[in-house]
Design a protein that fits this description.
The protein contains four helices and no strands. The protein is mostly helical. The chain is globular and about 50 Å long.
Length: 130
Protein backbone atom coordinates (compact mmCIF):
# COMPACT_ATOMS: atom_id res chain seq x y z
CA UNK A 1 0.00 0.00 0.00
CA UNK A 2 1.27 3.46 -0.88
CA UNK A 3 -0.02 6.83 0.21
CA UNK A 4 0.53 9.83 -2.02
CA UNK A 5 1.02 13.16 -0.31
CA UNK A 6 1.86 16.59 -1.67
CA UNK A 7 5.37 17.66 -0.70
CA UNK A 8 7.70 20.48 -1.58
CA UNK A 9 10.02 20.16 -4.54
CA UNK A 10 12.96 20.43 -2.13
CA UNK A 11 11.62 17.49 -0.14
CA UNK A 12 11.40 15.36 -3.29
CA UNK A 13 14.96 16.23 -4.31
CA UNK A 14 16.15 15.64 -0.74
CA UNK A 15 14.59 12.17 -0.73
CA UNK A 16 16.17 11.37 -4.10
CA UNK A 17 19.63 12.45 -2.93
CA UNK A 18 19.33 10.30 0.18
CA UNK A 19 18.19 7.31 -1.86
CA UNK A 20 21.10 7.82 -4.24
CA UNK A 21 23.52 7.86 -1.30
CA UNK A 22 21.93 4.67 0.03
CA UNK A 23 22.35 3.05 -3.40
CA UNK A 24 26.06 3.90 -3.21
CA UNK A 25 26.64 2.93 0.44
CA UNK A 26 24.35 -0.01 1.20
CA UNK A 27 25.38 -3.44 -0.04
CA UNK A 28 22.55 -5.59 1.34
CA UNK A 29 20.72 -6.93 -1.74
CA UNK A 30 17.32 -7.08 -0.02
CA UNK A 31 17.60 -3.47 1.13
CA UNK A 32 18.73 -2.38 -2.31
CA UNK A 33 15.58 -3.84 -3.87
CA UNK A 34 13.45 -1.49 -1.77
CA UNK A 35 15.81 1.45 -2.23
CA UNK A 36 15.91 1.03 -6.01
CA UNK A 37 12.15 0.62 -6.21
CA UNK A 38 11.51 3.87 -4.34
CA UNK A 39 14.28 5.68 -6.20
CA UNK A 40 12.88 4.64 -9.59
CA UNK A 41 9.37 5.81 -8.70
CA UNK A 42 10.50 9.16 -7.32
CA UNK A 43 12.85 9.74 -10.26
CA UNK A 44 9.79 9.67 -12.53
CA UNK A 45 8.39 12.61 -10.56
CA UNK A 46 11.61 14.58 -10.93
CA UNK A 47 11.52 14.43 -14.74
CA UNK A 48 9.45 17.61 -14.92
CA UNK A 49 12.10 19.40 -12.85
CA UNK A 50 14.86 18.24 -15.19
CA UNK A 51 12.76 19.30 -18.17
CA UNK A 52 12.50 22.84 -16.78
CA UNK A 53 16.28 23.25 -16.61
CA UNK A 54 18.43 20.12 -16.45
CA UNK A 55 21.66 22.01 -15.77
CA UNK A 56 20.21 23.91 -12.80
CA UNK A 57 18.43 20.82 -11.50
CA UNK A 58 21.68 18.85 -11.60
CA UNK A 59 23.58 21.64 -9.86
CA UNK A 60 21.00 21.97 -7.06
CA UNK A 61 20.68 18.18 -6.75
CA UNK A 62 24.45 17.78 -6.37
CA UNK A 63 24.64 20.61 -3.81
CA UNK A 64 22.01 18.92 -1.65
CA UNK A 65 23.55 15.49 -2.16
CA UNK A 66 26.90 16.84 -0.93
CA UNK A 67 25.24 18.13 2.24
CA UNK A 68 23.38 14.86 2.80
CA UNK A 69 26.56 12.86 2.23
CA UNK A 70 28.29 15.01 4.84
CA UNK A 71 25.45 14.23 7.27
CA UNK A 72 25.75 10.52 6.48
CA UNK A 73 29.47 10.57 7.25
CA UNK A 74 28.98 12.58 10.46
CA UNK A 75 26.33 10.14 11.66
CA UNK A 76 28.59 7.17 10.88
CA UNK A 77 31.44 8.69 12.90
CA UNK A 78 29.13 9.50 15.82
CA UNK A 79 27.79 5.93 15.86
CA UNK A 80 31.31 4.50 15.85
CA UNK A 81 32.31 6.67 18.80
CA UNK A 82 29.02 5.85 20.56
CA UNK A 83 29.58 2.11 20.08
CA UNK A 84 33.03 2.49 21.62
CA UNK A 85 31.65 4.67 24.45
CA UNK A 86 34.01 7.48 23.47
CA UNK A 87 32.42 10.81 24.36
CA UNK A 88 35.40 13.06 23.86
CA UNK A 89 35.83 16.44 22.17
CA UNK A 90 35.57 14.84 18.72
CA UNK A 91 32.20 13.33 19.68
CA UNK A 92 30.91 16.70 20.88
CA UNK A 93 32.13 18.47 17.73
CA UNK A 94 30.51 15.84 15.52
CA UNK A 95 27.25 16.09 17.45
CA UNK A 96 27.28 19.87 17.08
CA UNK A 97 28.05 19.57 13.38
CA UNK A 98 24.78 17.66 12.89
CA UNK A 99 22.68 20.76 13.45
CA UNK A 100 25.07 23.02 11.54
CA UNK A 101 24.85 20.65 8.59
CA UNK A 102 21.08 20.32 8.95
CA UNK A 103 20.91 24.11 8.64
CA UNK A 104 22.83 23.82 5.35
CA UNK A 105 20.39 21.13 4.26
CA UNK A 106 17.42 23.36 5.07
CA UNK A 107 18.94 26.23 3.08
CA UNK A 108 19.65 23.97 0.12
CA UNK A 109 16.09 22.58 0.11
CA UNK A 110 14.64 26.08 0.26
CA UNK A 111 16.87 27.17 -2.61
CA UNK A 112 15.37 24.32 -4.65
CA UNK A 113 11.85 25.28 -3.58
CA UNK A 114 12.37 28.87 -4.65
CA UNK A 115 13.99 28.02 -7.97
CA UNK A 116 11.21 25.64 -8.99
CA UNK A 117 8.37 27.71 -7.48
CA UNK A 118 7.27 25.02 -5.05
CA UNK A 119 3.77 25.45 -3.65
CA UNK A 120 5.03 24.10 -0.33
CA UNK A 121 8.05 25.21 1.64
CA UNK A 122 9.72 23.87 4.74
CA UNK A 123 9.75 26.20 7.74
CA UNK A 124 11.93 25.91 10.83
CA UNK A 125 12.35 27.88 14.01
CA UNK A 126 15.17 27.40 16.44
CA UNK A 127 16.89 29.37 19.12
CA UNK A 128 19.55 31.49 17.42
CA UNK A 129 23.01 30.07 18.07
CA UNK A 130 25.22 31.78 15.50
Amino acid sequence: MNIEIPISVGELVDKLTILEIKKEKIQDTNKLININNEYDELTKLAIQLKNKNEEEYTKLFNELKTVNLKLWEIEDKIRILESEKIFNEEFVELARSVYFTNDERFESKNKINKYFGSEFAEEKQYIEYK
